[in-house]
Amino acid sequence: xxxxxxxHYNGDMDTRFGDCILLYDSTFLVVYDCGHIQHASExxxxxxxxxxxxxxxxxxxxxxxxxxxxxxxxMEYLHSNGYDVTVYSSxxxxxxxxxxxxxxxxxxxxxxxxxxxxxTFDNIKNIIEKAHGYGFxxxxxxxxxxxLSGSIVGPTEDxxxxxxxxxxxxxxxxxxxxxxxxxxxxxxxxxxxxNAETILLCGDASPAYLHYLDNYDLIQLPHxxxxxxxxxxxxxxxxxxxxxxxxxxxxxxxxTSGGSDKLVEYxxxxxxxxxxxxxxxxxxxxxxxxGYKSNNRTQGVKLGEMxxxx
Length: 310
Known about the structure:
Layout: E1 2-5, E2 21-24, E3 28-32, H1 37-49, E4 55-59, H2 65-68, H3 71-80, E5 84-89, H4 96-103, H5 110-120, H6 122-134, E6 137-140, E7 146-147, E8 150-154, H7 157-169, E9 175-176, E10 179-180, H8 181-184, E11 188-192, E12 198-201, E13 218-220, H9 222-225, H10 227-236, E14 244-247, H11 261-269, E15 276-277, E16 282-285, E17 292-294, E18 297-301, H12 303-306
Parallel strand pairs: 3-4, 4-5, 5-6, 12-13, 13-14, 14-15
Antiparallel strand pairs: 1-2, 1-16, 2-3, 7-8, 8-11, 9-10, 11-12, 16-18, 17-18
Helix pairs in contact: 1-3, 3-6, 4-5, 4-7
């Protein structure tokens, strides 16, 4: 499998495009998040150029809009063009009874808990309903679930149920490990790439929910390269300098967008090799004919420049 982490478009660094990472070979495509309709459009162009692909697998890391806003548009295209589609997501209602037990306040009923879950995780609710309507296969993204040759490796069932319980406990924004509950239990995906390196994709997961990190060659640094998250990961690794890091930073220029600038500066000061960062352009692993090559990896090509030739 090869990887493409999509980037900004036509030099637009202001729009919050969010995440979209492709894993693919000549006959299969895995789409990990699709945070903007422009990403969906680029995936459609990719499929039109790669006509042997008939099966598409969509993995949704979590409910936030910068990871989900392009999914429904992409699914509409896939349905209209007859693709065989499987959608992987945390199916929150399957944990409703366990969530109710964790809340344990004697006031809530199971139906009310389910309704609160649907209201809280509204983006995924809408995506799953549309996927049902299209007749797509829908899989609960639990640990051990296979996605072609890859697999879901987190969060654990207990971690996930605890996050959902905190999310619906009150109408206030609840945080876990400094991150909102929407982020903390992002679905994590493990894949071995064509260069024999194993990558962990983790959305915006809280570092406390990432396990066995020393087993990976490449690690997506969560939350678009947020500095404190990355530092937590560096601290738990036996040799943080031996790893390669991927940052999906398409966060836009808004004051609350976050982003990787502080992390880039930190890694330079601490003498890390630079992370592969979509802020510089499309990231390709293994390398392609485009962009700057280093250690069999590619980065730094704007989508408008490469004309989606991947």
